[in-house]
Amino acid sequence: MKKTALIGSVITFCAINAFGAINQELIQKAKNSGLQPIPSGKALAAYQLQKAKDTDLATGYNPKMTQAQIELGKKLYFDPRISSSNLISCNTCHNLALGGVDVVPVAIGEKWQPNPHHLNSPTVYNSVFNSVQFWDGRAFHLGDQAQGPIQNPVEMAATPKLVVEKITSIPAYVDEFKKAYGNKVKIDFKLIGDTIAMFEETLVTPSRYDDFLNGNPKALSKQEQEGLNTFIDKGCIACHNGINLGGTMQPFGIVKPYEFANVGDFKGDANGMVKVPTLRNIAETMPYFHNGQYWDVKDAIKEMGAIQLGITINDQEAKKIETFFQSLTGTKPTITYPVLAPVTDKTPKPIF
Ligand code: HEC
Ligand code: HEC
Hints:
41% of the residues lie in helices and 2% in strands. It is mostly helical. Helix 5 crosses helix 8, helix 10 crosses helix 12 and helix 11 packs across helix 12. Bound molecules: heme C (HEC) (2 copies).
């Protein structure tokens, strides 16, 4: 009895050892392939500083932002009154309870209008780690990005003037801007966008995958590790790399055209390049691709193999990669839903 137990534990020990060694190899392989964990602690501070300095990569980090600024940014993010109808907020399309998306193929904004290019809303979680923003990469800084949807007639349809009038007509907002930026603050459209961006910078979701890359071999199950290995061996890491497993501009439809290329008229930037979506929280951000044509991520994986790599990904391999994707679902920051001060008689009325 005693002997069997001993043999049993020896076998278990060996198995863990062998498995542990394989893990370490895979961690190294993943890192060599350009996959990076979300920086934390000192590494995060260094990353933020570098990003703030590096104008090419300045997607938004402001290392000096304060809690008062972040809280104010959160209010603006959730406030539908910065839309002309008083009905659409950033959270309408980038719902923080739903992986930062709206779970519809095409974004729907003011007057129930669909995006004219049939574009799908990307997640705002971890968007700070993208090198560029929007499907065609036209914005770098999250603050500049935020000015877009507020003015877009099919999103929030508000002019900069109207937004500033609405905010400054609510004394509690003016007080909060003073608290965040000092008594002499000039509340303009740019500052509103930049403040929203500060809140967005906090929308970071570390997961077990990060623990694994940081050297904890037990953070991923055996099946998830197999999926990660398949993801690397198939060549997905050519474009899905870095902290976000995406976030840079890459060619799309390299080997053959995308199956649903004719849904909407989006063709990428001037060079036909498309921003690679982050794969973090991919299990929550369906439907997939710029025009939201796939609901099952396995179909998106197979299509990627066919059109980007010229390979056939079989059902079993797609399933393995999907299993790995589960480990990219991160811990969301705890967000207390803000209470917003009421409008006053000076606040411009909603326009439908
Ligand atoms: C009507 C839905 C809608 C609303 C409202 C909306 N967005 Fe978006 N958002 C989108 C769509 C669609 C895109 C992609 C558009 C494109 O690429 O041209 C996008 C892109 C983004 C991106 C870029 C992410 C990436 O990976 O490229 C960020 C960040 C973002 N929005 C933040 C915001 C903020 C902040 C607000 C509020 C001020 C907001 N959005 C309001 C639909 C919306
Ligand atoms: C040559 C670059 C490249 C390669 C290689 C590549 N991808 Fe992509 N991937 C992209 C681009 C660009 C998009 C966005 C396409 C679009 O929607 O227009 C994308 C989109 C995706 C999406 C949809 C994400 C979303 O939120 O809509 C998934 C899932 C995905 N890729 C997985 C993979 C897998 C798995 C592999 C390997 C089999 C792979 N990709 C290989 C560039 C690439």
